Amino acid sequence: MSQSSKQDLPDTSSDSDSLESFCKKVLKSRIFLGEFKEKRLVSALESYRDVIVVDVHSESAIANDLEIIRSKLLSVHGQKGDNHWIGVTKSHNRESVLIWTELESFYTFGRYWFQIKTVRFRNNEILLKLKVLRSVDDPPPRTAEQELNFKWEDFDWPLIERMGKDFGIWIQQQLRNFLIFLLSLRINPSQIIFFIKMTILVIISAVVSSIHVVQALGDFSLRLIAEIRKCVHVLTPLFLGTLDVFSKIVGGFYMLIAMIWRDSINLRMPRNQFQPLPPPRRWAPRKAIRN
Predict the structure, then answer these.
(1) Residue-number span of the structural domain to which 201 is assigned
(2) Based on the structure, what is the number of domains in the chain?
(3) How far is CA 184 from the centre of its chain?
């Protein structure tokens, strides 16, 4: 697979832009499973990088593509004599590929699903920008089908049909017993008339009571509004007078401070500072010059 991929690679040694576009085309938006293992200091960059380990067995496709990109970058920049730090290396045991990157935020060490956002070609570094999708320990998002813990085929439909029939028979028996009970009662016309009278009396009492309650609430509301209006009318002059007194007190306090400040300034000024101005000279017309 690696040999066929290498044969399909375009010849990008003559053009850095085509090499950059090729790397982004192959790696951008790729999703893979990796392990955030450690942070290491890169002496060539004098900076720390996050080390992501990609297993060549479980993620063979992305590992093979990373190895191809790394070999192509080494060949191109080796011919040019550039000292670019390539953020893709092989482990010592050749069992994994190491990605040296900068994660956007702080993450604990562990296994995550990553997505390659882009490939950055800096002045002295070639960096793969990764995005952390989610942790392997987090449960995957549940879909609507996963939320249903049962299927319609799991129901015992014959049992449900039999239970429905039994419930219908029970309802019929209860209705029959109720009708038999009503027919067994001995009701006199006088009892029916008394029941109707009591019902009408209860309805009339409820209506009259409701009317009286509404009238009482309306009367109470009107009296309360009138008392509030009187209270506001009486308290308004008192409130305005109190406000006027406080404003005069505050204004007098500020005037006192201003007078003390003015007197202190006048005392600090020397008296000879103000000298009389000389009298203005009178203007006299010039005489005409005779030739």
Answers:
(1) 187-251
(2) 2
(3) 70
